[in-house]
Automatic annotation (TrEMBL):
The entry's keywords: Glycosidase, Hydrolase
Coiled-coil ranges per UniProt: none
NCBIfam families (alphabetical): PRK09589.1 (NF007154)
Organism annotation: Faecalibacillus faecis
Keyword Hydrolase included in the entry's annotation: yes
Domain of life, per lineage: Bacteria
GO biological process: carbohydrate catabolic process
Lineage per the UniProt record: Bacteria, Bacillati, Bacillota, Erysipelotrichia, Erysipelotrichales
Keyword Hydrolase: yes
Protein name: 6-phospho-beta-glucosidase
Membership in a protein family: Belongs to the glycosyl hydrolase 1 family.
């Protein structure tokens, strides 16, 4: 009973949310570099600007200065006993515009040094290739993934990374939360780096088109990795938040199924190597005919080795008649689940939902899985003596780890590891805030850009250390 002996305990970040140094080491501009901070007072969302505009606030330019401080941070991860550290390789450090002939050696060297630093402590790097970090030039000049040329650029980037780091990195993922495009809202399309919307664009069509190109690019990358080195394991990365029916009313149940279809069909393509029938039916209905015979072959040959996913919350949906017959996903149908508490950002806390999601994947695909994000964003308070009592974070993580342990013990789930989000405070992806904190390690920096980036341990630091020491037996 319990987790496997070589269970990968650790934490996860993304390059653009922590590194900063946005113009150092030959790095090019990425989409996240031209994304403003949201306004947490007015609730205004993040915006993508047309290049860097003077006077705007771009938190990703500095991140938490990980680029210069990674040695200190990795040492702290090692002190907690990390076995794994998940981060992304910023695409623009390797190919600053995306379309260069040759990679940028200084960027490659940075990740060599980072991975060596991890291995010094026996920490295995787990790497995402594209975590909302599409080169800005690729988005602006080529139209991002609406353009098939982006497939070649991504595959070239992936191959350079596999070849260079094959003896330092075993576990890879292609596109972070590839399904976050499913909302068909401008922000999500942009955040995934898939496509920039122009006046008159058909957002839904472009969402499916760009997602298809990403899935083809991902399959080609999986195949290339196995050819370069059969030991490499390449997974997908799905943003997974189970959708429950708000009641047992059959229409609500069907509505929830429709939402699950819409949000999670991507994993079927990644894991089974072909599109699910309900999506093909939708494409037929809408007249979308971009899947070629060659694409079908590529998808079948590039199935993932494992399923990586993030889990933060669950949703509930109530049928309100907007999607009669199709039961297609309607974000407005999502309602509060009164059985659950929520974070300050309204994210509904549901540990058992994690076990439900593990089972959902397990029943369909019978693949190994890795939980590559799970965590609790909160307004932490630093006391006068420098301590942070983040018991709420401990409670959240404890209950989720318990739920995943039950999934291993009782449901037969094959779980490779757990990299919580995020071991150190970093910039929030959805809001661009510094004050939405997830870490065991406090970073002295806030929304008003005050602070010196110094690091200190929160109460949860020692707690997680003990969890790892006991391989998750004592929570
Ligand atoms: C996921 C993203 C991460 C991360 C996390 C927490 O969707 O993959 O990049 O940031 O969510 O979200 P946030 O930072 O918005 O609180």
């Amino acid at each position: 009973m319990g987790f496997r002996e070589d269970f990968l305990w650790g934490g996860a970040v993304a390059a653009h949310q922590c590194e900063g140094a946005w113009q150092e080491g030959g790095k090019g501009i990425s989409c996240s570099d031209v994304e403003t901070a949201g306004d947490n007072v007015t609730g205004a969302p993040r915006r993508l600007t047309d290049g860097v505009v003077e006077g705007e606030d771009y938190p990703n330019h500095v991140g938490v200065d990980f680029y210069h401080r990674y040695k200190e941070d990795v040492a702290l991860f090692a002190e907690m006993g990390f076995k794994a550290f998940r981060t992304s390789i910023a695409w623009t450090r390797i190919f600053p515009r995306g379309d260069e002939e040759k990679p940028n050696e200084e960027g490659l060297k940075f990740y060599d040094d980072l991975f060596d630093e991890c291995h010094k402590y026996g920490i295995e790097p787990v790497i995402t290739l594209s975590h909302f970090e599409l080169p800005w030039a690729l988005a602006k000049e080529y139209g991002g993934f609406r353009n098939r040329k982006a497939i070649d650029m991504f595959v070239k980037f992936a191959k350079v990374c596999f070849e260079r780091y094959q003896h330092k990195v075993k576990y890879w993922m292609t596109f972070n939360e590839i399904n976050n495009q499913a909302d068909v809202t401008q922000h999500n399309l942009i955040q995934e780096g898939a496509v920039l919307l122009k006046e008159g664009d058909d957002a839904e069509y472009l969402m499916y088109l760009s997602a298809h190109h990403e899935l083809v690019a991902s399959a080609l990358a999986v195949k290339a990795a196995h050819e370069i080195n059969p030991d490499l394991q390449v997974g997908c990365m799905i943003g997974m938040n189970g959708v429950y029916p708000a009641s047992p009313k059959p229409e609500d149940v069907m509505n929830a199924l429709g939402a699950m279809h819409q949000k999670y069909w991507y994993v079927e393509v990644h894991a089974r190597g072909h599109y699910p029938r309900h999506i093909l039916k939708k494409f037929e209905r809408k007249g979308y005919d971009f899947i070629t015979e060659e694409d079908k072959k590529i998808l079948a040959e590039g199935k993932v080795d494992y399923i990586g996913f993030s889990y933060y919350m669950s949703f509930a949906t109530q049928y309100q008649g907007r999607n009669e017959k199709t039961f297609d996903y309607v974000p407005e149908d999502f309602v509060r689940n009164t059985y659950l508490k929520a974070s300050d950002w309204g994210w509904q806390i549901d540990p058992l939902g994690l076990r439900w999601c593990l089972n959902w994947f397990n029943d369909r695909f019978e693949l190994p899985m890795m939980i590559v994000e799970n965590g609790f964003g909160a307004y932490d308070k630093k006391e006068a003596d420098g301590t942070v009592d983040d018991q709420y974070r401990i409670d959240y993580l404890k209950e989720h780890i318990q739920a995943m342990r039950d999934a291993v013990d009782y449901d037969g789930v094959d779980l490779l590891g757990y990299t919580m989000w995020s071991p150190i405070d970093i910039v929030s992806a959805s809001t661009g805030e510094y004050d939405k904190r997830y870490g065991f390690i406090y970073v002295d920096y806030n929304n008003k850009h005050e602070g010196d980036f110094s690091r200190s341990k929160k109460k949860s630091f020692d707690w997680y250390k003990h969890v790892i020491e006991t391989n998750g037996q004592e929570l």
